[in-house]
Write a structure and sequence with these properties.
The protein is an alpha/beta fold and 221 residues long. The relative contact order is 0.11. The radius of gyration is 17 Å and the shape is globular. It has ten helices and five strands, in the order βαβαβαβαβαααααα.
Amino acid sequence: MISVLLADDQSLVRAGFKALLDARDDIEVVGEASDGGAAMDLARTLRPDVILMDIRMPGLDGLEATRQMAADPQLAGVRIIILTTFELDEYLFDALRFGASGFLVKDTEPADLATAVRVVAQGDSLISPSMTRKLVAEFAARAKEPRAANELDVLTEREREVMKLVADGLTNHEIAEKLYMSPATTRTHVSRAMTKLGVRDRAQLVVLAYETGLVRPNWTT
């Protein structure tokens, strides 16, 4: 059973999400919070598999709560999905950088909501290729010169190649086809890259690829 914590300052939103998720046989909403501070307290008590976190809340907002949770060793196994009213909220890239595993717009379809929770619960990130490209465009518009890339020296050449394609928005199957390997081998390379770089999931791998200049959206290559 996948346990979920809902963090949103609108009670109607929480009630709607709870009804949709509790209707699934494999998902259970175990707690609700109306602000980031309460979400932090409940997360430490309940240790949910997934938190659905509204990015804009009074008091401690979802962005800062995400940053604090991702930095807390006690919550290392908790995955966070950011909820936003807008498809490309200005804070989404920061949320991914801080440790969110992906995001959903609040008017997402019920089936997609349940799928998102399952995907993130199993350790994958929730960023579609099309949304990756939008995030990249947003990052490129306000990016400066990338920081030193020597932290990528721990990767093999193949892992760097796979990481670059992940940042380009390709799925594991698309990467496998491009590099003539099996999807399972691709997944292994992605997993090893994340472990070596100390990132939580695929979302942070994408962020790091751009921050180190492995992929350069608006710089001379």
